[in-house]
């Protein structure tokens, strides 16, 4: 079967990563979670006191960009690659609500985006890759053979995220999670550099009422259709 590039964009907590992992496993493709990369940079900014509830020293973060080393390392026990920041496994730390509160602000910084986009494009130069994020089909891989844009209501996404955090033992309220979802939507769609938009040739999927299995089956059918034509 011919190898293609699959770009998955969409709003936060729409299950982009879950779908991308399913597809990569089924197709034996490389999976890249670009959200984890931005989350790792946000964690770096937090740990170095560059960003806080009422402050954001963008210039300090920009100056430190060359010091940020990101790497995915496959964990055979878990069945997926984990995020390493400067040699440290930060997979658990980057999934907290605290990091979620800052990641969209960090992702607005052009110098950060430039560094990460360059890395992402290098990862996908040989195709056979599934990558999810906010600007994959519009910036990272504008020539991707298949582009998917995922959406769902803010309330549905907040409930999914809340349930996920509860299962992990995080003490959060639904109201705080919903506020975070809405704020991230606004920042992601209004930033000057590479805002979240639907690519002209993307296929939009509203999964508010779809199961993971239904969504997976629908996208696999799309992939089969695309492979036949390339």
UniProtKB/TrEMBL annotation:
Instruction: Provide the E.C. number(s) assigned to this enzyme.
Output: 2.7.4.25
Q: Which GO terms describe its molecular function?
A: kinase activity
Q: Where is it mainly found? A: cytoplasm
Domain named Cytidylate kinase: residues:
6-224
Q: Cite the Pfam families for this sequence.
A: Cytidylate_kin
PANTHER family named among the record's database cross-references: CYTIDYLATE KINASE, CYTIDYLATE KINASE/PANTOATE-BETA-ALANINE LIGASE
Entry protein name: Cytidylate kinase
Organism of origin is Flavobacterium frigidimaris
Gene that produces this protein? cmk
């Amino acid at each position: 079967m011919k190898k293609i590039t699959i770009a998955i964009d969409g709003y936060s907590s729409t299950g982009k990563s879950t779908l991308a992992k399913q597809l990569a496993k089924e197709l034996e493709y490389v999976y890249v979670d670009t959200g984890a990369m931005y989350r790792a940079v946000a964690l770096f900014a937090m740990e170095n006191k560059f960003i806080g509830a009422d402050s954001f020293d963008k210039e300090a973060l920009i100056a430190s960009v060359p010091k940020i080393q990101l790497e995915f390392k496959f964990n055979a026990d878990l069945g997926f690659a984990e995020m390493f920041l400067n040699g440290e496994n930060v997979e658990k730390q980057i999934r907290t609500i605290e990091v979620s509160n800052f990641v969209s602000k960090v992702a607005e910084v052009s110098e950060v985006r430039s560094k990460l986009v360059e890395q992402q494009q290098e990862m996908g130069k040989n195709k056979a890759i599934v990558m999810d994020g906010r600007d994959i089909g519009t910036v990272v891989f504008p020539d991707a053979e298949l582009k998917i844009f995922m959406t769902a209501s803010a309330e549905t996404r907040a409930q999914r995220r809340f349930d996920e955090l509860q299962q992990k033992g995080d003490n959060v309220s639904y109201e705080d999670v919903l506020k975070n979802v809405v704020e991230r939507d606004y920042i992601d769609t209004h930033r000057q550099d590479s805002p979240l938009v639907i690519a002209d040739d993307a296929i939009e999927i509203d999964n508010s009422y779809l199961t993971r299995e239904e969504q997976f089956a629908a996208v696999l059918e799309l992939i089969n259709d695309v492979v036949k034509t390339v």
